[in-house]
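Could you please consider the sequence and fold following this short note?
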Amino acid sequence: MNKLQFYILVIGSVVISLVLPFILPERFYLDAILIVKDPYDEKGWWGSYPLSMMFYHITKLGKLPFSVVALIQLPFLYFILRLIGIPERFQIFTIKNTLIYLSFLMMAIFIGQPSKEFFTFIFIGIIVLLFQQRVLSLGVCLLISFLMFFAFGAIFRPYFTFIPIISIGIFLITRIRFKNRWILGIVSGIAVIVLLSFTYSLVKGQFFSGMTRETINLERMNQENADTMLVSPIAPTNIFGEAFATVYGFISVNFPINALKFIYKPQVVAFIVWQLLLTWIIVVRFGYLLKDYKVRKKEFWLMLFFLSYLVIQGIFEPDLGSAVRHKIGLLPLIYFLFYYDEFKRKLQ
């Protein structure tokens, strides 16, 4: 029954993706339109937008209707999830399962079109599958994954280069005997990214959040679709402002209580519920892995990668819509962390 449920969801997601271009507002496809039209001839081999534009240009997928693109892309992504595994009790309506069901729907919305998240999803899927190989030791998996993060960051998304660094910082802190190590671990991750930002500012004169989120949002101020953007009440003009902006961004993205002011928008409310439940489950799973580290070392490091990404979102994420879109790109990792103890293929 668990396999049947998986395939029903896959088929349902693909079918839904075929009709979404005809019913969703155009704002859901602004990125896709920019990628396929490439109005300023930016396609190239360096950077997320240029590479995405080049891919859809070379493969001619950019010439196809979005529904056809979804029909081609989504089955490939679901195949990656199938390789990771199908949970033993996937057919039961639990909170954990329901969040993944909704994530399948979000895949249809956000990756059932030309998308940069298509490449992120594949990359993260490869990382998870790498750690699932029993013949590879933890050290080999870490070495390969660190090199992959640095390469992917250098070529596609720069902030992915920070994931190994932050994960090492969190790991070292969690080795300290402390009652609430999960809190200390997350705080240490935030401290690492703030220190990296401070170091960068000494060289370039600007903090990470100032050159990314704040700059993007200043350009979008007062636009119709920018009401859920994240703007820190304190400008990141010094290390204290940057630290506050990072914590503010981290809380806004992962504990989006402040977004309740948009309660009149069903899609925002849905995101709040999905995100809060996701954060709660991840925190609980992190607690389990802290206790079982000696027998769950590979799972623990994959958790550190995800926590590092959550910390990074505190600096780079411009708005709630982008936050959920980008998290769907990490769905293979979320999927694995939700069910690592249910998959038949145990890690060693």
About this structure: The CA atoms of residues 172 and 185 lie 8 Å apart. The chain has a mean pLDDT of 88. The chain has 15 helices and no strands.
